[in-house]
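Z., the sequence and structure:
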Amino acid sequence: MMIEYQQEYDEAVALLKQLISIKSLSREEEDAADAMQSYLQSKGLDVNRKGNNVWVWSGQKDPSKPVLLLNSHLDTVKASSKWTYEPFSPTVENGVLYGLGSNDAGGPLVSLMATFLLLSKSEQPFNLVFAATAEEEISGINGVSSILDELGNIDLGIIGEPTLMQMAVAEKGLMVLDCTAKGKAGHAARNEGLNAIYEALADIEWFRTYQFPEVSDLFGPVKMSVTQVNAGSQHNVVPDTCSFVVDVRLNEKYSNKEAAKLIQAQVKCDAVPRSTRLNSSYIPLEHPVVKRGIELGREYYGSPTTSDQAVMSFTTLKMGPGDSARSHTADEYIKLDEIKEGIHLYYEMLNNLNIRS
């Protein structure tokens, strides 16, 4: 029997309209966080705040129970000049809500919030926490990663992103390498020096052709792309350095640190990761939440896009109303029926879920 949640749905849509009307670019989410905090406090909840991150627990934590996190983000990207609607003015036409951040990730955010309130009405076999966080669009250090220590151990995280309410059971990792091949300067007219460009060529060819041993059923092989090359100061000087950048997209078989170690053992150049924070993720198909999703007719897939899952070391599932194809586009929108479906499916998947079974 479908749970009655009309009030939660109506309030979720009203809050989403309010959030759309608030400018909340990455690092500028303060007013949006204020709005979320005010709404949760109006429900009589004890709200926690750190920077532009807001979170709330359902009742008292029971140390004998696992912890379920519901998380999505408050920030948006900048609106392009191609918008025909006013991006900060929520507009509803024929059951479609237009506005910046409506799809990515306002719809998932308010749907998870409504689900949190519904789940909190009854005893659950898990501790439940909802977090609305900052800086997801720039993978910033002052976003969800800044509060994970305060949340403590998490057994399962539901990450709200637009997936058409299908289950993204894996997500690619991202690592950018700054590589430097070294030579020795000399005059181009004489047989002197060691050309750093030629030294770099062998490594560039290695990046082009190497195949990591572990291939994913969801993503295929790890993909490495040399995307920038820079060398030389003038036409008659043999360059002593050649720098290039490699974009590495990891499947769920490798952590960034594992991949960096493998690469550094194979190439002659210095290959230095800018960061190893944005790791791949994977939730087993045998996990109770995935099995329940399948029972509800949900499909599963591997997501090529990066989210806050990348900074979470615990088990996560990315799922939410809306469509990632609409993200970061002009006239971004979400269908109101998608929000209603999102609340319903989130609730059906999570209510009385035995996370540890």
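Helices lie at 6-20, 30-42, 102-119, 148-151, 196-209, 256-266, 288-295, 336-350. Residues 173-273 form a domain with the Alpha-Beta Plaits fold (CATH 3.30.70.360).

Let me know what you think.
H.
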